[in-house]
Amino acid sequence: MALRVLVVGGGLMGAAAAWRLSARGHRVTVLERFGPGHDRGSSYGTSRIFRLAYAEPSYTELALRALPLWRRLEEESGQPVLTLTGAVDHGSPRALDRLAEVLGAAGRSARRLSPGEVADRWPGLRADTAALYHPDAGRVHADDAVSALLKAAGQRGAEVRHGVRVTEIRRCGRTGDGVTVLTDADEALTADAVVVAVGGWAPGFLPAMVSGLPPMRVTQEQPVHFPVPDALEWPSFIHHPGAGFRLPGGVYGLGSVDGVKIGLHGVGPVVDPDHRDRTPDPAVTERLRAYAEEWLPGAAGTEPTPLTCLYTTTPDEDFVIDRQGPVTVLAGFSGHGFKFGPAIGDLAADLVEGGPGLPRFALGRTAPAR
Protein backbone atom coordinates (compact mmCIF):
# COMPACT_ATOMS: atom_id res chain seq x y z
CA MET A 1 0.00 0.00 0.00
CA ALA A 2 1.36 3.39 -0.97
CA LEU A 3 1.92 5.69 1.99
CA ARG A 4 1.88 9.46 2.13
CA VAL A 5 5.31 10.42 3.54
CA LEU A 6 6.72 13.83 4.40
CA VAL A 7 10.51 14.17 4.53
CA VAL A 8 11.74 17.08 6.64
CA GLY A 9 15.19 18.09 5.46
CA GLY A 10 16.50 17.97 1.90
CA GLY A 11 20.19 17.39 2.56
CA LEU A 12 21.84 14.10 1.75
CA MET A 13 19.92 11.87 4.15
CA GLY A 14 16.51 13.37 3.48
CA ALA A 15 17.13 13.28 -0.26
CA ALA A 16 18.26 9.65 -0.06
CA ALA A 17 15.17 8.69 1.94
CA ALA A 18 12.95 10.48 -0.59
CA TRP A 19 14.57 8.58 -3.46
CA ARG A 20 14.25 5.15 -1.89
CA LEU A 21 10.70 5.78 -0.65
CA SER A 22 9.54 7.04 -4.03
CA ALA A 23 11.25 4.07 -5.70
CA ARG A 24 8.98 1.82 -3.63
CA GLY A 25 5.88 3.65 -4.83
CA HIS A 26 5.19 5.89 -1.85
CA ARG A 27 3.90 9.46 -2.25
CA VAL A 28 6.69 11.67 -0.99
CA THR A 29 7.05 15.39 -0.32
CA VAL A 30 10.41 16.86 0.75
CA LEU A 31 10.32 20.03 2.84
CA GLU A 32 13.68 21.84 2.89
CA ARG A 33 14.17 25.02 4.86
CA PHE A 34 16.86 26.52 2.62
CA GLY A 35 17.34 26.89 -1.13
CA PRO A 36 18.81 24.32 -3.54
CA GLY A 37 22.50 23.66 -3.04
CA HIS A 38 22.73 25.73 0.16
CA ASP A 39 25.86 25.73 2.31
CA ARG A 40 24.32 26.00 5.79
CA GLY A 41 24.57 22.37 6.89
CA SER A 42 26.60 19.20 6.45
CA SER A 43 25.82 18.09 2.89
CA TYR A 44 27.40 20.73 0.69
CA GLY A 45 30.74 20.91 -1.11
CA THR A 46 32.55 19.01 -3.82
CA SER A 47 33.91 15.97 -2.03
CA ARG A 48 33.31 13.30 0.58
CA ILE A 49 35.29 10.11 1.09
CA PHE A 50 33.80 6.81 -0.04
CA ARG A 51 35.43 3.75 1.50
CA LEU A 52 34.63 0.23 2.62
CA ALA A 53 37.45 0.07 5.16
CA TYR A 54 36.19 0.28 8.75
CA ALA A 55 37.35 -1.31 11.97
CA GLU A 56 33.70 -2.16 12.67
CA PRO A 57 32.36 -4.76 10.16
CA SER A 58 28.78 -3.47 10.25
CA TYR A 59 29.93 -0.23 8.64
CA THR A 60 31.75 -2.13 5.91
CA GLU A 61 28.51 -4.04 5.29
CA LEU A 62 26.56 -0.79 5.08
CA ALA A 63 29.07 0.69 2.61
CA LEU A 64 28.79 -2.46 0.51
CA ARG A 65 25.03 -1.94 0.46
CA ALA A 66 25.52 1.69 -0.59
CA LEU A 67 27.96 1.06 -3.45
CA PRO A 68 25.53 -0.43 -6.00
CA LEU A 69 22.91 2.13 -4.99
CA TRP A 70 25.30 4.97 -5.83
CA ARG A 71 25.71 3.38 -9.27
CA ARG A 72 21.95 2.98 -9.65
CA LEU A 73 21.52 6.64 -8.74
CA GLU A 74 23.97 7.62 -11.48
CA GLU A 75 21.99 5.59 -14.02
CA GLU A 76 18.64 7.05 -12.99
CA SER A 77 19.77 10.66 -12.72
CA GLY A 78 22.25 10.64 -15.60
CA GLN A 79 24.69 12.39 -13.28
CA PRO A 80 28.08 10.92 -12.20
CA VAL A 81 28.67 11.27 -8.46
CA LEU A 82 31.09 8.51 -7.35
CA THR A 83 34.69 8.17 -8.52
CA LEU A 84 36.75 5.22 -7.30
CA THR A 85 40.39 6.24 -6.94
CA GLY A 86 41.39 3.77 -4.26
CA ALA A 87 42.42 4.78 -0.75
CA VAL A 88 45.56 4.70 1.35
CA ASP A 89 45.44 4.26 5.12
CA HIS A 90 48.75 4.76 6.84
CA GLY A 91 50.21 5.21 10.29
CA SER A 92 49.36 2.94 13.19
CA PRO A 93 50.12 -0.71 12.23
CA ARG A 94 47.45 -1.86 14.66
CA ALA A 95 44.79 0.20 12.88
CA LEU A 96 45.91 -1.11 9.49
CA ASP A 97 45.84 -4.73 10.71
CA ARG A 98 42.22 -4.34 11.76
CA LEU A 99 41.16 -2.72 8.49
CA ALA A 100 42.84 -5.48 6.49
CA GLU A 101 41.12 -8.10 8.63
CA VAL A 102 37.65 -6.62 8.12
CA LEU A 103 38.14 -6.12 4.38
CA GLY A 104 39.42 -9.67 4.00
CA ALA A 105 36.43 -11.09 5.88
CA ALA A 106 34.17 -9.14 3.50
CA GLY A 107 35.97 -10.58 0.47
CA ARG A 108 37.41 -7.23 -0.61
CA SER A 109 40.99 -6.69 -1.67
CA ALA A 110 43.63 -4.74 0.22
CA ARG A 111 47.39 -4.62 -0.21
CA ARG A 112 50.22 -3.63 2.10
CA LEU A 113 52.57 -0.98 0.80
CA SER A 114 55.82 0.39 2.14
CA PRO A 115 56.30 4.17 2.40
CA GLY A 116 58.60 3.92 -0.62
CA GLU A 117 55.95 2.17 -2.69
CA VAL A 118 53.42 4.87 -1.75
CA ALA A 119 55.83 7.61 -2.79
CA ASP A 120 56.52 5.89 -6.11
CA ARG A 121 52.83 5.60 -6.95
CA TRP A 122 51.62 8.92 -5.46
CA PRO A 123 54.58 11.32 -5.20
CA GLY A 124 52.42 13.93 -3.50
CA LEU A 125 51.72 11.71 -0.49
CA ARG A 126 54.17 10.65 2.22
CA ALA A 127 53.21 7.54 4.17
CA ASP A 128 53.96 7.02 7.84
CA THR A 129 55.62 3.70 8.82
CA ALA A 130 53.22 1.39 6.95
CA ALA A 131 50.33 1.69 4.51
CA LEU A 132 47.29 -0.25 3.32
CA TYR A 133 45.86 0.32 -0.17
CA HIS A 134 42.29 -0.69 -0.91
CA PRO A 135 40.83 -0.06 -4.38
CA ASP A 136 37.10 0.08 -3.52
CA ALA A 137 37.30 3.67 -2.30
CA GLY A 138 37.42 7.20 -3.61
CA ARG A 139 35.19 10.27 -3.50
CA VAL A 140 31.58 11.33 -3.82
CA HIS A 141 30.79 14.80 -5.20
CA ALA A 142 28.57 16.04 -2.38
CA ASP A 143 26.57 18.77 -4.13
CA ASP A 144 26.03 16.61 -7.21
CA ALA A 145 24.96 13.66 -5.06
CA VAL A 146 22.24 15.64 -3.29
CA SER A 147 20.93 17.13 -6.53
CA ALA A 148 20.99 13.69 -8.21
CA LEU A 149 19.03 12.14 -5.33
CA LEU A 150 16.37 14.85 -5.46
CA LYS A 151 16.22 14.61 -9.24
CA ALA A 152 15.80 10.82 -9.14
CA ALA A 153 13.14 11.12 -6.43
CA GLY A 154 11.32 13.71 -8.53
CA GLN A 155 11.42 11.44 -11.56
CA ARG A 156 9.58 8.86 -9.46
CA GLY A 157 6.90 11.33 -8.41
CA ALA A 158 8.31 12.97 -5.29
CA GLU A 159 7.58 16.67 -4.75
CA VAL A 160 10.55 18.74 -3.56
CA ARG A 161 9.77 22.06 -1.88
CA HIS A 162 12.58 24.44 -0.95
CA GLY A 163 12.19 27.45 1.31
CA VAL A 164 9.75 25.69 3.64
CA ARG A 165 10.60 25.74 7.35
CA VAL A 166 8.87 23.14 9.51
CA THR A 167 7.96 24.51 12.92
CA GLU A 168 6.25 21.53 14.55
CA ILE A 169 5.38 17.89 14.02
CA ARG A 170 2.32 16.45 15.76
CA ARG A 171 1.15 12.87 15.93
CA CYS A 172 -2.48 12.54 14.95
CA GLY A 173 -5.14 11.23 17.29
CA ARG A 174 -4.88 9.19 20.47
CA THR A 175 -3.28 6.24 18.72
CA GLY A 176 -0.54 8.36 17.17
CA ASP A 177 -1.32 7.10 13.68
CA GLY A 178 -0.21 9.63 11.10
CA VAL A 179 1.28 13.08 11.53
CA THR A 180 0.50 16.73 10.97
CA VAL A 181 3.44 18.91 9.98
CA LEU A 182 3.16 22.65 10.56
CA THR A 183 5.21 25.15 8.55
CA ASP A 184 6.15 28.80 8.93
CA ALA A 185 3.69 29.59 6.14
CA ASP A 186 0.80 28.47 8.40
CA GLU A 187 0.36 25.24 6.45
CA ALA A 188 -0.79 22.04 8.16
CA LEU A 189 0.28 19.05 6.09
CA THR A 190 -0.95 15.57 7.00
CA ALA A 191 0.71 12.27 6.16
CA ASP A 192 0.92 8.65 7.21
CA ALA A 193 4.56 9.06 8.24
CA VAL A 194 7.37 11.57 8.47
CA VAL A 195 11.13 11.19 8.08
CA VAL A 196 13.13 13.81 9.97
CA ALA A 197 16.65 14.42 8.65
CA VAL A 198 17.64 17.90 9.78
CA GLY A 199 21.37 17.49 10.45
CA GLY A 200 22.76 19.99 12.95
CA TRP A 201 19.26 21.13 13.88
CA ALA A 202 18.38 17.65 15.23
CA PRO A 203 19.35 18.20 18.90
CA GLY A 204 17.00 21.17 19.17
CA PHE A 205 14.20 19.78 17.03
CA LEU A 206 13.86 16.07 17.76
CA PRO A 207 13.36 15.79 21.55
CA ALA A 208 9.81 17.13 21.25
CA MET A 209 8.75 14.17 19.12
CA VAL A 210 10.84 11.09 20.03
CA SER A 211 12.44 9.71 23.16
CA GLY A 212 15.74 7.91 23.65
CA LEU A 213 17.94 10.26 21.64
CA PRO A 214 21.61 10.09 22.57
CA PRO A 215 23.24 13.44 23.29
CA MET A 216 24.49 15.03 20.08
CA ARG A 217 27.29 17.58 19.81
CA VAL A 218 27.08 20.06 16.92
CA THR A 219 30.48 21.42 15.92
CA GLN A 220 31.89 23.64 13.21
CA GLU A 221 34.68 21.83 11.39
CA GLN A 222 37.22 23.43 9.09
CA PRO A 223 38.88 21.45 6.30
CA VAL A 224 41.01 23.18 3.67
CA HIS A 225 41.68 22.73 -0.06
CA PHE A 226 45.19 22.92 -1.49
CA PRO A 227 45.35 24.02 -5.17
CA VAL A 228 47.15 20.94 -6.51
CA PRO A 229 46.97 20.51 -10.33
CA ASP A 230 46.73 16.71 -10.21
CA ALA A 231 44.22 16.64 -7.31
CA LEU A 232 41.76 14.38 -9.14
CA GLU A 233 44.44 11.70 -9.45
CA TRP A 234 45.02 11.46 -5.69
CA PRO A 235 43.60 8.58 -3.68
CA SER A 236 41.55 9.29 -0.61
CA PHE A 237 43.64 8.79 2.50
CA ILE A 238 43.53 8.61 6.28
CA HIS A 239 46.56 9.16 8.48
CA HIS A 240 45.96 7.20 11.68
CA PRO A 241 47.76 8.44 14.79
CA GLY A 242 50.05 6.15 16.70
CA ALA A 243 53.20 5.77 14.61
CA GLY A 244 55.19 8.86 13.60
CA PHE A 245 52.16 11.10 14.03
CA ARG A 246 50.32 11.68 17.30
CA LEU A 247 47.50 14.12 16.62
CA PRO A 248 44.28 12.66 18.18
CA GLY A 249 41.76 11.63 15.56
CA GLY A 250 44.25 11.77 12.71
CA VAL A 251 43.87 13.53 9.38
CA TYR A 252 41.74 12.62 6.38
CA GLY A 253 42.19 13.74 2.80
CA LEU A 254 41.09 13.29 -0.80
CA GLY A 255 41.22 14.90 -4.18
CA SER A 256 38.42 17.09 -5.49
CA VAL A 257 37.69 19.59 -8.24
CA ASP A 258 38.66 22.27 -5.71
CA GLY A 259 42.06 20.73 -4.97
CA VAL A 260 43.35 18.30 -2.37
CA LYS A 261 41.12 18.50 0.68
CA ILE A 262 42.40 17.63 4.15
CA GLY A 263 40.82 18.01 7.56
CA LEU A 264 40.85 17.08 11.21
CA HIS A 265 38.05 14.84 12.41
CA GLY A 266 35.55 16.20 14.90
CA VAL A 267 37.72 18.68 16.80
CA GLY A 268 35.88 21.94 16.06
CA PRO A 269 34.05 24.21 18.51
CA VAL A 270 30.45 23.59 19.56
CA VAL A 271 28.07 25.91 17.69
CA ASP A 272 24.42 26.79 17.24
CA PRO A 273 23.68 26.08 13.55
CA ASP A 274 21.46 29.17 13.31
CA HIS A 275 23.97 31.56 14.89
CA ARG A 276 27.47 30.42 14.06
CA ASP A 277 30.37 32.54 12.93
CA ARG A 278 31.47 30.86 9.72
CA THR A 279 34.75 32.78 9.61
CA PRO A 280 37.62 30.25 9.32
CA ASP A 281 40.02 30.01 12.26
CA PRO A 282 43.53 30.96 11.10
CA ALA A 283 45.07 28.66 13.72
CA VAL A 284 43.35 25.62 12.19
CA THR A 285 44.40 26.64 8.69
CA GLU A 286 47.99 26.98 9.91
CA ARG A 287 47.91 23.57 11.59
CA LEU A 288 46.76 21.95 8.34
CA ARG A 289 49.33 23.91 6.35
CA ALA A 290 52.05 22.61 8.69
CA TYR A 291 50.73 19.08 8.27
CA ALA A 292 50.97 19.41 4.48
CA GLU A 293 54.55 20.66 4.72
CA GLU A 294 55.51 17.47 6.55
CA TRP A 295 53.28 14.79 5.02
CA LEU A 296 51.99 16.06 1.65
CA PRO A 297 54.95 17.05 -0.52
CA GLY A 298 52.59 17.49 -3.46
CA ALA A 299 50.72 20.26 -1.64
CA ALA A 300 53.58 21.82 0.30
CA GLY A 301 54.18 25.46 -0.47
CA THR A 302 50.68 26.11 -1.80
CA GLU A 303 48.12 28.39 -0.17
CA PRO A 304 45.13 26.49 1.27
CA THR A 305 41.55 27.73 1.04
CA PRO A 306 39.51 26.99 4.20
CA LEU A 307 35.81 26.24 4.46
CA THR A 308 33.47 25.37 7.31
CA CYS A 309 30.77 22.75 7.77
CA LEU A 310 28.77 21.08 10.54
CA TYR A 311 29.27 17.77 12.33
CA THR A 312 26.49 16.32 14.49
CA THR A 313 28.23 13.73 16.64
CA THR A 314 26.97 11.12 19.08
CA PRO A 315 29.13 9.91 22.00
CA ASP A 316 29.91 6.60 20.25
CA GLU A 317 29.95 8.13 16.73
CA ASP A 318 27.23 5.66 15.75
CA PHE A 319 24.21 7.00 13.91
CA VAL A 320 20.57 7.32 14.90
CA ILE A 321 18.33 5.54 12.38
CA ASP A 322 15.12 4.45 14.03
CA ARG A 323 11.35 4.90 14.18
CA GLN A 324 8.87 5.71 16.94
CA GLY A 325 5.27 5.55 15.77
CA PRO A 326 4.98 7.47 12.50
CA VAL A 327 8.27 9.36 13.05
CA THR A 328 11.49 8.04 11.51
CA VAL A 329 14.70 9.75 12.66
CA LEU A 330 17.93 10.07 10.69
CA ALA A 331 20.51 11.91 12.80
CA GLY A 332 23.94 11.97 14.42
CA PHE A 333 26.07 11.03 11.42
CA SER A 334 29.21 12.10 13.25
CA GLY A 335 31.22 13.27 10.27
CA HIS A 336 31.37 9.91 8.50
CA GLY A 337 27.86 9.24 7.22
CA PHE A 338 27.89 10.63 3.69
CA LYS A 339 29.31 7.54 1.98
CA PHE A 340 26.35 5.48 3.20
CA GLY A 341 23.66 7.88 1.97
CA PRO A 342 21.62 5.69 -0.41
CA ALA A 343 21.81 2.72 1.97
CA ILE A 344 20.57 4.90 4.83
CA GLY A 345 17.73 6.00 2.56
CA ASP A 346 16.88 2.32 2.11
CA LEU A 347 16.97 1.76 5.88
CA ALA A 348 14.61 4.71 6.32
CA ALA A 349 12.21 3.24 3.78
CA ASP A 350 12.30 -0.10 5.63
CA LEU A 351 11.39 1.66 8.88
CA VAL A 352 8.57 3.69 7.33
CA GLU A 353 7.10 0.45 5.98
CA GLY A 354 7.18 -1.09 9.47
CA GLY A 355 10.36 -3.12 9.11
CA PRO A 356 12.91 -3.55 11.88
CA GLY A 357 15.83 -1.23 12.41
CA LEU A 358 19.43 -2.03 13.24
CA PRO A 359 20.13 -2.25 17.01
CA ARG A 360 23.40 -0.35 16.60
CA PHE A 361 21.49 2.74 15.45
CA ALA A 362 18.49 2.46 17.76
CA LEU A 363 16.88 5.15 19.84
CA GLY A 364 17.28 4.37 23.52
CA ARG A 365 20.50 2.42 23.21
CA THR A 366 22.04 2.48 26.66
CA ALA A 367 25.74 2.04 26.00
CA PRO A 368 28.20 2.59 23.19
CA ALA A 369 28.22 -0.36 20.77
CA ARG A 370 32.02 -0.26 20.56
From TrEMBL:
The keyword Flavoprotein applies. Its cofactor is FAD. Residues 4-351 form the FAD dependent oxidoreductase domain. Keywords: FAD, Flavoprotein, Oxidoreductase. It comes from the Bacteria. This is FAD-dependent oxidoreductase.
